[in-house]
């Protein structure tokens, strides 16, 4: 029938097989990349696959920041086995999980040992009651339970959001910022190479956030980006954006048609009055914002793993289709739901007793932050943060942050994080983490 319509003759396989095979062989020769090693080739005694590396990895300038810090710490310890290292580096909790929250984890684990209580795969979006409890206890009904996607942490969710955004978007980040936003943008292929002088990747919009602008970008001179990552209270600067600033940000995103990925992982550490703890406290956020969040830092869940992402129903792509529907598709495809044991622990976090225990943990870390702040002030340095966030950002008065990192490690056995690890805007600063035992801060 096709031959009749188009006039092109189809031919039966036995007749045309030899010429087709010959032309395929010619085509294969023509398209073979000469520099590519033969499949299974061996070079310098190393057996190689025939798979080309994702070229975006070649754009990354170094390993991921926190393992790199860990590597330097271990190298120092290997050379100085008696060193008594004080860790004010990675934001990793040190206090044990409090008893009520722990009882939730234990109950979740125990249920699995009974015929009636056992459960296998759960909903990819999280248990219904937990989604309800997050919406009511933490968002005061400003988001619906069906808009909450429970997960194994906000860092993992940022990776999954990037998978949803794909390689064709442009992203904007605060500079300095939590390195996950930039590194995942690079790996996804959204960026060009890093410029050796500016230390910025091409096709990323860097929004300077420093003492001169009170750590809030000048949006009037910021170019449009499709996706805007914004963390408040901020990691690493410790700055918390005011209600007015967040309103400006939301208005700007709505006007530009950008999607705001708001990282609220440190929100409960806010002490200042009237500083929003969620972007959904801001008018207009439901048409532009996604919020990522986590129990890691305030319920001692860095190793336990539980986070969530809120995607409001009103948020749509340029073609009018639902962002939440696509995020749901991602979660169903690459995630099998948070651990049922951990979700039981998360339910306990949101009970009255759990919330009170969380407050005690927050107070503990914020007292550490106050001590670190004071110690830096006492030696005459300018410090930022540490009042609404568990990070203290120290101005090194023009000194290189990696040099200061090494000097502190070698002379005082204190591990910190160099500001430059968070982007070029962090150069000249050092981040101290208040997630440490009290003795470390004394
Ligand atoms: C840090 O800044 O120390 C990080 O937030 C660690 C992490 O949670 O990925």
Give structural notes:
- The protein has helices at 2-6, 13-31, 65-79, 99-111, 128-139, 154-165, 179-188, 243-256, 323-334, 340-349, 352-378, 401-412, 438-441, and strands spanning 42-43, 46-47, 86-87, 148-151, 171-175, 204-208, 227-231, 259-263, 289-294, 307-310, 383-385, 391-395, 414-415, 417-418, 429-433.
- The protein is an alpha/beta fold.
- The strands form four sheets. Strands 4-10-9-8-7-5-6 form a seven-stranded mixed beta sheet, sandwiched between helices. A four-stranded antiparallel beta sheet has the order 11-12-15-14. A two-stranded antiparallel sheet has the order 1-2.
- The structure holds D-malate (MLT).
- Residues 66, 90-91, 155, 178, 235 line the site of D-malate.
- The site of D-malate has 6 residues, from loops.
| C-alpha termini separation | 86 Å
What radius of gyration results from the CA coordinates?
26 Å
Would you tell me the overall average pLDDT? 92
How many DSSP H or I helices?
A: 13
Tell me roughly what share of residues is in helical segments.
25-40%
Biggest beta sheet summary: 7 strands, mixed
Total DSSP E strands: 15
Ligands: D-malate
Helix-strand pattern, N to C? HHEEHEHHEHEHEEHEEEHHHEEHEEEH
* Main β-sheet, spatial strand arrangement: 4-10-9-8-7-5-6
Mass-distribution shape: globular
Class by alpha and beta content: alpha/beta
Strand content: 5-15%
Low-confidence stretches: 1-32
């Amino acid at each position: 029938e096709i031959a009749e319509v188009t006039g092109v003759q189809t031919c039966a396989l036995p007749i045309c097989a030899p010429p087709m095979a010959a032309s395929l062989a010619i085509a294969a020769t023509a398209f073979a990349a000469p520099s590519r090693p033969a499949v299974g080739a061996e070079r310098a005694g190393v057996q190689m696959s025939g798979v080309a590396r994702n070229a975006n990895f070649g754009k990354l300038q170094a390993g991921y920041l926190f393992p790199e810090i860990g590597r330097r710490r271990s190298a120092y310890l290997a050379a100085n086995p008696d060193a008594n290292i004080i860790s004010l580096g990675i934001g990793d909790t040190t206090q044990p999980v409090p008893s009520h929250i722990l009882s939730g984890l234990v109950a979740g684990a125990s249920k699995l040992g009974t015929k009636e209580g056992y459960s296998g795969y759960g909903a990819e979006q999280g248990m219904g009651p937990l989604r309800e409890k997050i919406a009511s206890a933490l968002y005061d009904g400003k988001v619906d339970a069906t808009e909450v996607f429970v997960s194994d942490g906000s860092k993992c969710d940022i990776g999954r959001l990037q998978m949803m955004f794909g390689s064709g978007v442009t992203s904007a980040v605060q500079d300095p910022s939590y390195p996950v936003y930039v590194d995942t943008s690079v790996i996804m292929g959204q960026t060009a190479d890093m410029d050796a002088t500016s230390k910025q990747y091409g096709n990323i919009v860097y929004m300077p956030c420093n003492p001169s602008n009170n750590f809030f970008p000048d949006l009037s001179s910021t170019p449009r980006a499709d996706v805007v990552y914004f963390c408040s209270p901020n990691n690493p600067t410790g700055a918390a954006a005011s209600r007015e600033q967040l309103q400006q940000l939301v208005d700007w995103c709505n006007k530009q048609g950008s999607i705001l990925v708001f990282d609220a992982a440190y929100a409960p550490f806010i002490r200042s009055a009237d500083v929003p703890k969620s972007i959904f406290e801001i008018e207009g956020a439901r048409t532009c914002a996604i919020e990522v969040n986590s129990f890691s830092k305030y319920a001692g869940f860095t190793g336990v793993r539980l986070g969530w992402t809120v995607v409001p129903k009103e948020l749509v792509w340029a073609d009018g289709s639902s962002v939440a529907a696509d995020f749901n598709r991602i979660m169903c495809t690459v995630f099998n739901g948070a651990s049922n044991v951990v979700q039981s622990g998360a339910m306990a976090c949101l009970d009255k007793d759990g919330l009170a225990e969380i407050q005690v943990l927050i107070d503990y870390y914020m007292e550490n932050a106050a001590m670190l702040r004071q110690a830096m002030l006492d030696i005459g340095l300018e410090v930022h943060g540490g009042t609404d966030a568990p990070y203290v950002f120290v101005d090194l008065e023009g000194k290189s942050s990696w040099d200061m990192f090494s000097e502190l490690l070698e002379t005082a056995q204190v591990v910190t994080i160099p500001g430059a690890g968070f982007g070029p805007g962090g150069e000249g600063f050092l981040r101290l983490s208040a997630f440490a035992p009290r003795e470390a801060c004394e």
